[in-house]
Amino acid sequence: MRHVVVISTGGTIASRWQGDGYAAEAAGQEVLAAGAVPEGVDVRVVDLFTVNSSQLTTGHQLRLLHAVHEVLADPSVDGIVVTHGTDTLEESALFLDLFHSDRRPVVFTGAQKPLDAEDGDAAGNLYDALLTAATGRDIGAVIVFAGQVFAARGTVKKHTVDVRAFGDPDGLPLGRVEFGRVTWGRHRARPVPLPLPARDAVAPRVDVVMHHSDGDAVLFEAALGAGARGVVVVGTGAGNTNPEVAAAVGRAVRDGVLVAISTRVAAGAVTPLYTGGGAVDLAAAGAQLTGTLRPGQARIAVLAALLGAPSAEEAPETLRQVLAATPQALTRSDLYLVDRVGK
Ligand SMILES: NC(=O)C[C@H](N)C(=O)O
């Protein structure tokens, strides 16, 4: 018998109609009752919190990280499933992944249709997640959704309501779940985990500011004024802004603020190609380029670096290490596998 612990946190997988909209309300045991448990798997449920995931805070994510740590202290546990709202699922999954030091997996899943929907996706996703948690090893935190297993890193919610909600625009899934078994693709090396932050660690403020035509430094400066210790600038294209924003980034970095550059484009890596306030100048100003991490996960990388660094002075180096393990754009041969282009 394999032992899996399900940590329930809310989301649509735990949601019911409230008369004017959906909200998370069901406990983990009710979520579990929505579907079948794979044969040979025994499940224990931990009810951690019950929220729509757009309401999450770093405080929730630290509680989840410590709950996982405590559950894995029991050597008889084979793996963990976290049921979670899909809106910020990729953020919590990367957060857990960056601190994960155990061979046993943390498998995130959820649903796009509410718990009581007749054609719901909760049961299938949960079944696949339980199978993956019971059998996967050395995969860190992963996302299981609509029959696919994705590494937490680089995966995003790609559709607001479709049941195929997740994907990695720059990579392939790690595996698939079909006919009651998990088939694994290529193995990805795991990065060195960050040290576990205290459960009651004070969450540093990390803001996200998007660039656009007419963009200026006002919102970036407002973030600093609000006490941000980290800011993710979501550039246009390959990670570009303008000279005014680049100058503000330089001043912030000199003042000890961790600045990272992501892009508002859906796929491809941030790449230093352009001056005039582009990624070339932003990198020269001391900002770190986040490769293929989309903005929500780039923010988590900065947050985790601030929480996991031995001291504030070492946070830039910690972020460099976190980003060194970030997947880069697909190679030509991988593109062939995704798009079936070529011969
Ligand atoms: N499908 C979902 O789970 C969306 C929901 N609003 C949530 O993230 O909690």
Automatic annotation (TrEMBL):
This is asparaginase. Substrate binds at residues 53, 86-87. Residues 3-187 form the L-asparaginase N-terminal domain. The active site is at residues 12, 86. It is an enzyme of class 3 (hydrolase). GO terms for biological process: asparagine metabolic process. One of its GO terms (molecular function) is asparaginase activity. The keyword S-adenosyl-L-methionine does not apply. Residues 205-309 form the Asparaginase/glutaminase C-terminal domain. The lineage of its organism: Bacteria, Bacillati, Actinomycetota, Actinomycetes, Kitasatosporales. Belongs to the asparaginase 1 family. It comes from the Bacteria. Its EC number is 3.5.1.1.
